[in-house]
Amino acid sequence: MKLTTEVPVKTSPYPIDYNSSLLCLGSCFAEHISRKLEFYKFNVTSNPFGILFHPEAILNVLEKAVKDEEFTSDDVFQHNEKWQSLFSHSRLSRNSSTETLAVLNSAKRELKVASEEATHVIITLGTSFIYKHKSTNLGVANCHKLPQDHFEKELTSIEELKNILSRLISSFGMMQPDAKLIFTISPVRHIKDGIVENQRSKAHLISALHEVLEETPNQPSYFPSYELMMDELRDYRFFNRDLIHPSDLAVDLIWNRFRSNFISEDIYLDMSKVEKLQKSIAHRQTETEGEVFEKLKTYQYKIKEELKKKYPFMRFPNL
């Protein structure tokens, strides 16, 4: 008996393995996926500019990286005792303009290198609503709690989104023509925009993205994380207490579907070894000496050395 409608997921013809270089960009769900990849010790770079919800915010920083264009004093401002930038999330904010510019330019270099070396780029789109800074007309990554009258909130049209997404795909092509792009729509609902408005926002993203994918040679992949959450997992037991964000269980279930369709079966055994080692390291030990403790350390060391011999880039705590 089936108790849910299963969402079909296409298997990627270009699966990820431990030789892959991964870049994750976009909304907070991109961070969920990147944390899973990091746990399993993939070579992954995640959101150098922090969480970016709108495709234009991603495009703004990617084009800076493509042009290798430095951030300058015009790109930062002081507010609430921090120096901020409209190009980035607040986690890049610092106590001085010099520090913030240094962090921004470091993030730009990180994004440039990761884009040039990427075999796969995973892009999570969060919303079609964007805040335009009135004096610069920049679609901002974050408003940083500036007064509301500094911005104009807009629902980006499908045609505008198609243009942004096409430029995004083209920019990645300029950085690394062989990189495989994987797009997904964030399953997180932006309830602050309103229930109906959130649905319009997601509908614009879905329509624009699929039209662009159909028109793009060597069509990028699509992973239906939004559809999995809204249909296959359509039950509030799969949400956090805020009833907006996916629960840990939901993230695990969506990750399992991603792994089954986008990660090579050839490395499942090695992934299992990484998982066992990671859980063993994270487990709080009640004993710090004795035969049982020494056996555990020997077991951990053996798996670690096996993995490092096969994958020298993997890093684990000293055991």
From TrEMBL:
Keywords for this protein: Hydrolase
Matching Pfam families: GSCFA
Start and end residues of each GSCFA domain: 22-258
GO molecular function, one term: hydrolase activity
EC assignment: 3.1.-.-
Name the UniProt record assigns to this protein: GSCFA domain-containing protein
